[in-house]
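Newbie here. four chains, one complex. Structure please?
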Amino acid sequence: MSDYAYIVLIPLLPLASFVLLGLFGRKYFTKSAGIIGTMALLASTIIALMAAHQYFFVDGKVAGAYHQVIAFKYTWLAFSPGVSIDMGIVIDPISVMMLVVVSFVSLMVHMFSLGYMKGEERFATYYAYLGLFTFSMLGLVLSVNIFQVYLFWELVGVSSFLLIGYYYEKPTAVAASKKAFIVTRFADLGFLIGILILGFYSGTLDISTLIHKLTSVQSPEYIAITTAGFLGASALTWALVLVFIGGAGKSAMFPLHIWLPDAMEGPTPVSALIHAATMVVAGVYLVARLFPVFSMDDTALHVVTYVGAFSALLAAVIACTQTDIKRVLAFSTMSQIGYMMFALGVSKQVGEQGLGYMASMFHLFTHAFFKSLLFLCAGAVIHLVHSNEIKDMGGLRKLMPVTHIAFLVACLAIAGVPPFAGFFSKEEILLAAFNENKLIYAVALFTAALTAFYMFRLYFSIFWSKESAHHDTHHEGTVSMKIPLIILAACTIGVGFIPFAKLVTADGAALETHIDILFSLAPVGLTLIAILIAARLYKQQNGGPQKIADSLGGFYRVVSRKFYMDELYLFITKKIIFPLIGKPIAWIDRNIVDGCMNALASITVKISGGIKGMQSGKVQGYALYFFGGVTLLAILFIYVWK
Amino acid sequence: MSSLSEIPLAHILFVSTALFFIGMYGLFTRKNLVTLLMAIELMLNSVNINFIAFNKYLYPGKLDGVFFSLFIITIAAAEAAVAIAIIINLYRSHQSIDVDDATEMKY
Amino acid sequence: MLMDFFILLKQELVIVAIIFLLLFINLGKDRSNESLLPLINVVLLLNVLLGFFGSKEGSLFGEMFHTGKLIILEKNILNLATWIISLLSFSWLRTHKHVIEFYILLLTALLGMFFMISSGNLLVLYLGLEMSTIPIAAAANFDLAKRKSSEAAMKMIISSAFSSALVLLGISWIYGVSGSLDFSVILLQGPDSPFRIFAFILLVSGFAFKMSAVPFHLWTADVYEGAPVSVTAYLSVVSKASVVFVILAFLYNAGKAFADTWYHILIVLSILSIIIGNLFALRQNNFKRFLAFSSIAQVGFIFIGIAGSSQVSSAAVVYFVLVYVFSNLAAFGVVALVSAVSGKENISDYKAFYTTNPLLSWVLTIAMFSLAGVPPTAGFFGKFFLLMAGAAKGNYWLIGIAALNMVVSFYYYLRVVKTIFMEENSQPIEKLAIPGASRLALYICLAGMLIAGLASCVYDYIYSISFGL
Amino acid sequence: MNLSLLILFPLVTAIILLFCNGLKQVRMVALAGAGLQLILAIFLLVAFLQDRSMGNQLTMLFEYDFVWFKNLPIHYHIGVDGISIAMILLTSCIVFAGILISWTMEKLSKEFFFLLVLLSMGAYGFFISLDLFTLFFFLEIAVIPKFLLIGVWGSGKKEYSAMKLALMLMAGSALVFVGLLGVYYQTGSFDMMKIAQMNIPLDTQYFFFPFVFLGFGIFAALFPFHTWVPDGHASAPTAASMFLAGISMKLGGYGCLRVATFLMPAAAHYYSPIIIVLATIAIIYGAFATMMQTDLKYINAYSSVSHCGFVILGIGMLTQTSIKGAVLQMVSHGLMTALFFAAIGMIYTRTHTRMVAQLGGLLKVMPFISTVFVIAGLCSLGLPGFSGFVAEMTVFMGSWQNPGGLYRLATILSCASIVVTAVYILRATGKTIMGPLDGAYSKLGDALWNEKLAAGLLITGIVLIGVAPFLINQLIGPGTAAMMEQIGKTINLK
């Protein structure tokens, strides 16, 4: 199917811009860097859309189901026969969908940054990093080989590291970037070992082959991997759970979510791109990519489900108490990803049961738009007020109408108010949960309400509340910043109506979805109530929120400190790993291991000092030794070694 | 001559060995360098006795032993000459011929 | 017959001639050292060259004296070493009163060694031994004014007299049990009676004394330290080498029947020598004393080689001695120059030596590397072959000990290099003017250390003429 | 082509150096010599690939066998396969870079470059020799110059470090020496190819393998004989550190593979659990020790201990993939650590401190150097796109193919070390490169042309391997395959 080969261009263009700007940006393209990057992205986006069109509406369907196409594949590093890292391009519904999302959102961010990052010293570097990230992310979604996934997985990790640490002179930014990288790296360890296990038992790293081998119950590989076990769980379970840990790390699932809020130290557009729309959903994508295998093992699926649900709830609760708008958004992201995760968890591979899968992908799709929109709006706001704190804001609706409208649209979408995009996807998820697992459904419902509440808390306290302290001299930012907002807002309204169930499903076959009003009543109703409460509390300034906070007392504090997760991690690293493992080892090395080496030397010197009396300087003593030697030899050879 | 042949070889060897170790004892214990030389002469002479005795009792046919002892005597003389010279020089520098005074170099 | 006499005894006769020349050279008018030394050096060079042609194998005086290719080579090595030493002692002798006597003593000793090497009979052996010892004892005293010098001479003469007494006792016993003095006869029977063994041990320990192997080594350090540098060099190179050759010949020919006994003796002595030598060398600060102990350790390695008792091992031993001559003489050469000019003989005086005398420093460094056995110097090959020969009998633990001790020896050899290159010094030894003779000698040693190893022909030749047990 | 040129060129360069004087002349000659070596190495690579593509399936190419000592079976026998060529390329790159880095070596410049070139000669000789004697000969040649380089041009407690390094390495070679003699007397030959054919009796293997392996292990910083590494590296001048970590430690790894494992596979199999345990300890322990260091050079030194652990691990696992990984890791780590030391050296020459605590925000004043530093760091924590990733992943894949609880555990622990690596690398980077800039450093300048060239060369190597591993795979693959075939004859592993 080489007629998809042109898709190679989609990742390569950003790569080109990265190389170009990375090598020569600082010298030659200090001003034009932005344009170059944006143009590259524009090109890839167009190609991506073409590809999507071609796949979904021209020749993707075979016998009523979307099938997988390997556009191209090249053995990159051969380990042993059968086992090798291949670089390739896989075309199937989710990869195409992700292509569109990634390139599109990235384009928006590129555009927005033209204005937002104007006059930065390392403007070119910034765009170079963006290019690198986009390339890696596209490479990730197109992977044919599980090791290829891992490879790009690491690359997105590092580009996120570089972008979070973009303001490298801010210690907090440096710390945040380190935290993000190390936490995800820790998760990747699980991923890596998972890969090793899968690769070992299935004898391949090629995803489609691997899926093929591990999903047919009679295949020797499947039997081997399910019979082999460790600590009561089968090797398959272990592999999948480990892989999921990797995904959880990237997707900021509990308990590996701690890096995400801090990651907000990076430039806001970056947060929009990486920590809202694309990279953080990589975990979801990974699980979806291997979903056929996951669906073979209930334990793994349950882990996915409960971790997802819990994270969704936890994040929502925390989000209600945060005062930094970006952190609020960060937690909302975590919460939404939780949705996607448990949606996958409650799904099955084929037919009607595949609803959750489809819903999850759908939500991933819509979420990308409204969440990036939220972040970009937040960016615009921060650009204006030069602060992330809610208290510095308020009454901005007159100053920045466009942003205001866009933000409102986004809020409605994420809250799941019809007919905005979020509504459709969230309904599907709730439905899936309802069919599979009532508990999860309840959690999801409650979380939905919370979501609506904290989003509108944010909305009202930014744009209404008290009168703006800022003068009208501030304008809303350049055109290049407004356009993305408008486009994204339009999408946020529009994308909900895409017949997603027809396009992206677990087994490729179209899925009949019907949302009856009765089912929708509950969530929508709750949402609206939550919105009203938020309006009541935050539309005008009043002591209400404070009262509630006080009434909750300790609980409130615990929540606002994010359940002391960070402190826990700090304790483990600073109080356990460094002093109890690192220091002793370093000490042992210097004093014991090295000490032994030095001791050998000093002992030798000691001995040589001890026997020096032999050389007494008295010639008679020498003669005596001579005679002693002779006698000794004589005794030895006459009596001993006769 | 016959009177000599009544003494068994063992006795003579005993004497010579005794002489040798007396010499060695002298070498180990006396402090005066000249005395040390004398002690060495004792040892050499005991060896001479050995040679002569062996030659006379065991191998009367050839005269190897006798000749050897002649050479030993000569060389002992030469050795003594050089040694005395050295000792005199030592006396010049150390104002003493006590062996324990010449222990500057040690360890 | 008479022809044979002149050909076989050629090297000895040449030396005798030289000695006579020296005796009579000062008749008539007194020559100054400046005119004398070059002459003598040229004569010695002729002596070296003459050794290389017109030689043939055979024996004289009814097996008392015999010679062969290997023996001739060995004598040539000794000649060469003597010549180099005389070149090196140029700057020392230039101002010395008794040049002639010095040379006469050295050459007499050399003569003694020649006879010792060629001896086929205990009497000749003994005469050679004494002849090669007594003159050196006198020569050790050649810094007449120095206290240390006379002390050294005293210690040497006493100890050597004692050892020769013991050797004589051994010989007398051997004579007693075998009734002959000829090598071909004396040790035909194996070690059956304690007398034989005891006598044999006494003989070997006499050699060990001359080679200064532990525990017969104690005189070495003191004598080396006290004696004039040139004499020390002569002791540690020529006299030691000669005894190595002798013991090689003696054990491999006369001692066949005792192979098992002396094999074990050598093992014991070699281990003792290597360990004790190294341990003492660690602490030394006086350069000559340091070299003394390092040479004791070297002797241990030589013993391992001899213990191999095959053609490879005898070849390896002779080869190692050749290399050792070059390396040790290079080191002594530098020390001689320094002490002749500045009178400094301590290692610590050599701090920052490189800043003032790069050439000498490099020579000394390479000498140290060669002694330590670092490639590409010849010392590496020498040690490798020795241990290879020693390992032939499969006693790897011995090789292991030797190898570990090589590491220890690295420490003290590298310490010298460290002193030269790395340590600071407010007043380093001033820039030395190297006389042409010494320069020549140093270059010869340098060439020897660098070429003798890489050029395999040297070893191959030695192998071709050497013999096994 | 004639491999002896590899030894001849450095030799000639060294000799010419003796007659030069003045830094300018000397460094030009040295650079020219190193350049020639580089060209030669590349030419060798091309020639090798051509031969292979023409279907020349011999294990060793460009063999040349000359009887050196005819009475002892000592031959000057040289030849190369893919592995050795990779090593030769590595050496030439690092020597070239090293000479560039020490471009302004004022103190005793002639001697400095002379010794450096001598070292490179030793390394080349070691990598091409197929005769155990020649191998040992060059191994020791490659040791002693380091003593002088560290002791004379070093910093800190240089004498101590130099002596320690020399003695420990000499102890290593002493062990090797005993092993070699043993092998010689069991087989009557020094020729590796021959010996490998006439597989040695088991008890002999079991007895002598530890000698050889430990001996070379000391060179490769095998725990617990790694303590020369930190001191040595910390005191050495930049170029020497580059050489030390980049090549000397590879001598050890190469020896462990080519001599110990290749000649005595049964013993290697027998001892593999011990080897694995030691290697794993080195990996984890080194990583944690690194975490605690405050001196950049110590950081890199300890991380070298950790990374060389992967080499030993790969060899100990005895699967084709893992051995391939070990070789890859040798090349990768060589380039990477040399680059790291180069960066540290550049920083040190400007700021005159290597203490992490005293540095900060260098990215502002010296972007190029900082970038180099970051790249080295990222390569060291195994980031895709750099050689480190390729090498480590190959080792992991290979190790995982070796079933059995111990091996699995070892593999997992080694994988875990990449997290620790991330921690210490990011700590170092975050403190030195990022963060607020110390005012004292605000005037400092960025890299000069020579430094840029050196770093560029090394980075090219790293990225090339990282982006197109299939290239080097072509080179190393057949070599390891042949070796495994040989090994597999005696032990059957997949």
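Moderator note: Chain D has one domain: 5-493. Residues 320-351 of chain D form the longest helix (32 residues). Thread marked as resolved.
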